[in-house]
UniProtKB/TrEMBL annotation:
UniProt GO molecular function: inorganic triphosphate phosphatase activity; metal ion binding
Official protein name in the record: Ceramide glucosyltransferase
InterPro entries the record matches: CHAD_dom, CHAD_dom_sf, CYTH-like_dom_sf, CYTH_domain, YgiF
Organism whose genome encodes this protein: Sphingobium lactosutens DS20
Boundaries of every CHAD domain copy: 210-475
Amino acid sequence: MGREIELKLDLTEDAASRLCRWDGLPEREDVTRLRATYFDTPDARLASKGLSLRIRQSGRRRVQTIKGDGSSAAGLFARQEWERPVRSQSPVLDGDTPVQDALGDAISQIEPLFETDVERTRWLIQEGDVRVEMVIDRGVVRAGAREAPLCEVELELVDGAPAALFAIARRIDGEVPVRPGVLSKAERGYALRGPVAEAVKAEPVSVNASMTIREAFLTIAGACLRHYRRNEALLLIEYRERALHQARVAVRRMRSALTLFKPVLLEADVARFQRELRWLAGMLGEARDLDVLHGRLVPGAQAEIAEVRADSQARVRAWLDSARVRGLLLDIAEWLALGAGCSGAADAQVWDFAGSRLKKLHKRVARGGDGLKKLPPDKRHKVRKDAKKLRYGAEFFAGVYADKGARKVHGTYVKALAKLQDRLGDLNDLATAPALFARYHLADDTGLDIRSEETLLRKAGKAHDRFASASRFWR
């Protein structure tokens, strides 16, 4: 069993062609064609255990590889790996691999599910004590009748520190645009077997009570960055309302994670990333406002904002293509890969820390919403933002309180919190509607479906009371 540390970067086909001619590469290169078949049970049990199994063929040589999920931080993969030569396209699954233990009797159901077919161009970069293998893979992923293009750079560490991978990545980005890649080839294949994605929701975060605070933060922040990148990738193909919304949710989740873990992070790091993430969220905000407004207007009024909406969507694409966004993603990915500069306090178990942070946020929402009916819009908006942070925190730390009783209480608590968020969101829509109408020169009788403030305040008050009295799952 070996362990690989590699940084994946996504890029376009045109960028890959230009990168192959980059002066910063050694003259010597190897070009090979690689065809790989990936195996699993029909219901993907192996993937559910965090394992992938493939047989890759290059010429007459076949190599079977099993990889474990290991740890990843938005492009940097550190995974366990089992490799062996094989004579045919049939996997060899003996006691030297983890597959038997993972599948048990279901091992007999293993079958080919999808394949990759790529041209790999390889260089070995050596700078002092650092040696990095750089490859560009260009080709396709096929699953049944469906296929998707594949174009990525892999920087694999042979000797040296992981920081060297990011130094090379930044030099590459100075030549052609690249972004941290968050999907393995296996994940791309599994995705092809499912429905076409219009957007990607946040995946469950694998945090548990045995983790340290540091491990929990790196897991949560890495999941947030992965969530963002998967939706950004969809937006770079074409504008999708749902993908934009999920990209903004991912940014908010990352900002909430920075707030939750602020006591164990360097103040300068938190300030820097909060500033840039706030800018990124704001950059996406106008398009999201127009999407929401468009969906709530009558057809005639929708036509009035069609041009400004198209312009806003074009600006989103331009901003996502910017060096500032790409640099931010590489900066966060490296920061997480190198441990996020956590203080010594982050070596403590996450249990008490999670409870104290959730308790503090709960009190802020409960007390801030007292007398909700009499609060001015700006105060209600603050309660709404705090409620979002608490909701994300409750999702992040759900696995810390995983016994049966806590799970039941968690579900009830989050449901009450979600209802409060919805009611406060309705009030925010009502408060911001006049400014939106004025900004886009819309009349007041455009058919916007917003109920009266009195009705919304009454429902929000009831939702806040139910939330404030809900049992806390972290007790």
